[in-house]
Design a protein that fits this description.
The protein folds into two domains: about 5-230 and about 430-455, Aldehyde Dehydrogenase, Chain A, domain 1 (3-Layer(aba) Sandwich); about 235-415, Aldehyde Dehydrogenase, Chain A, domain 2 (3-Layer(aba) Sandwich). Helices cover about 40% and strands about 20% of the residues. The protein has helices at about 25-40, 45-60, 65-75, 80-100, 135-150, 160-175, 190-195, 210-220, 245-255, 275-290, 310-325, 355-360, 375-385, 400-410, and strands at about 5, 15-20, 105-110, 115-120, 125-130, 150-155, 180-185, 200-205, 225-230, 235-240, 270-275, 330, 345-350, 365-370, 390-395, 415, 435, 450-455. The strands form four sheets. The protein has a seven-stranded mixed sheet, with helices on both faces. Strands 7-6-5-8-9-17 form a six-stranded mixed sheet, with helices on both faces. Helix 3 packs antiparallel against helix 6 (about 160-175). Strand 15, helix 14 (about 400-410) and strand 16 (about 415) form a beta-alpha-beta unit. The termini are far apart. It is globular. The chain has about 450 residues and is an alpha/beta fold. The model has no long low-confidence stretch (mean pLDDT about 95).
Length: about 450
């Protein structure tokens, strides 16, 4: 019997079986990864950028194959999968163009000594535990930065996208990157703990829920391994009185339903001031009704199935608990009678603090529509969350919106009058239960490096 069977969430049919690697094979991979690192760390940053560029070029040769597999395993629309591959290529391009400068040695004039040097040296194997919602992007986000830094990389992917993880390994191995610098581990949770404990593994990064983040961070802390945690969120998109309501509704619908609603920085709470609440409500209902649910391979489909029936059922339970505590279903909210793990675009109202729809992350196509008294109340509600990844402000006065984002939004990222998902040129990460550490924007390259100070005191005596 197979240890892992991947399933197409659109049909419920099995895709492929996989077995876990043996402990001995995992140890051999770690040893080989460390050996490859010992050589890679000595390669110049200029030469590393050429290899990073070759990864991007090889990726595009597999664009259609990888996108199709992600859609089959994960259920995201084919259009979204193709866009995800393009984003991975953009990460390679940005890193190749900016990596040398980000890692450049910094020379400082310091009183009392001849000079001071600051270097950014690689530290070794970086182990990434990644989720299923963006099967390629989540991997490329930490992998490319760490390869540029001179580290080697191991991946434990979510079991339901095992095929995607192995195809990514194949793509990197067909580039100019030495094979052992990136390996995909098909392992269970106990084996994963052993990887974290291995002395040759020097850093751990995880993208996932805050529950998973706490568990992995504790495991790594016991053996003094640095971690980067990109965890869940409950992002608030704030609509203020002077907002362009058509733009706000269109953007909020897209930001909630993109990737089938299974995105950490999705628009999960629509916080709307009282003066425009009713108008926005009518618009957002109209926008949600315009999204087509169906086969993710079909070009006409806007929302595919959730990643699994388990995920769908957990989301529905959160909705039902919210309703039992006073929330009302304005749109959707029923499990459709059809094959696959589909769930309709859903809007909840009358949201209260004790409901999952207010305090927890709803990881699927369900939006919480919340009425705020005024601007101050809107930001109070937005920040009244244990999470702090992203959020958005809709307000025609752009300068004031920027000021509000700077001073009043307790999150790692803020969008103003739009939704950009991510940009390789800007940092990505959150605060509070949304984790710590940053990726992208050149910051991710320095998360797992030894920031080494060299004190040049003076000439040695003759």
């Amino acid at each position: 019997m197979a240890d892992i069977t991947t399933v197409n969430p659109a049909t419920g049919k099995n895709i492929k079986d996989y077995n876990y690697m043996s402990d001995g094979d995992v140890t051999k991979i770690i040893d080989a990864s460390h050996h490859a690192f010992s050589k890679w760390r000595l390669v110049s940053t200029e030469e590393r950028t050429k290899v990073i560029s070759s990864i991007g070029d090889t990726l595009m040769k597999y664009k259609d194959e990888l996108a199709k597999l992600m859609t089959e395993e994960r259920g995201k629309t084919l259009e979204a999968s193709l866009g995800e591959v393009d984003l991975c290529k953009a990460i390679c391009d940005f890193t190749a163009s900016e990596g040398v400068a980000a890692l450049a040695e910094d020379e400082r004039d310091i009183e009392g000594i001849k000079k001071g040097l600051v270097r950014y040296d690689p530290i070794g194997i970086i182990y990434g535990i990644q989720p299923w919602n963006f099967p390629a992007y989540q991997v490329f986000r930490y992998t490319i930065a760490n390869l540029m830094a001179g580290n080697s990389v191991l991946l434990k992917h979510a079991s339901n996208v095992t095929g995607s993880g192995l195809l990514i390994e194949k793509i990197l191995h067909e580039s100019d990157l030495p094979n052992d610098l990136f390996r995909t581990l098909v392992i269970n949770h106990d084996q994963s703990e052993q990887v974290i404990e291995n002395n040759k593994v020097r850093g751990v990064t995880l993208t996932g829920s805050d529950v998973a983040g706490r568990a992995v961070a504790q495991q790594a802390a016991k053996v003094l391994k640095k971690t980067v945690m990109e965890l869940g969120s409950n992002d608030a998109f704030i609509v203020l009185e002077d907002a362009d309501l058509e733009l706000a509704a269109t953007t909020c619908a897209h930001a909630r339903l993109y990737n089938n609603g299974e995105t950490c920085i999705a628009a999960k709470r629509f916080v709307v001031v009282d003066s425009v609440y009713d108008k926005f409500r009518d618009l957002i209902i109209e926008k949600f009704k315009g999204y087509t649910i169906g086969d993710p391979m079909d070009e006409s489909t806007d929302v595919g199935p959730m990643s699994s029936s388990k995920q769908r059922d957990e989301l529905h339970e959160q909705l039902q608990e919210s309703v039992s505590k006073g929330a009302t279903v304005t749109l959707g909210g029923e499990v459709p009678d059809m094959p696959g793990s589909f769930y309709p675009p859903t809007i909840l109202e009358n949201i209260k603090p004790d409901q999952p729809a207010y305090k927890d992350e709803l990881f699927g196509p369900v939006a919480s529509l919340i009425r705020a008294k005024d601007e101050d109340d809107a930001f109070r509600i937005a920040n009244d969350s244990r999470y702090g990844l992203g959020g958005a402000i809709f307000f025609k006065d752009e300068d004031k919106a920027i000021s509000l984002a700077q001073e009043h939004f307790d999150t790692g990222m803020v969008y103003i009058n739009g939704y950009d998902l991510v940009s390789p040129a800007l940092p990505f990460g959150g605060v509070k239960d949304s984790g710590y550490g940053r990726e992208h924007g050149g910051f991710g390259i320095k998360e797992f490096v030894n920031i080494k100070a060299i004190h040049v005191v003076g000439q040695a005596p003759a």
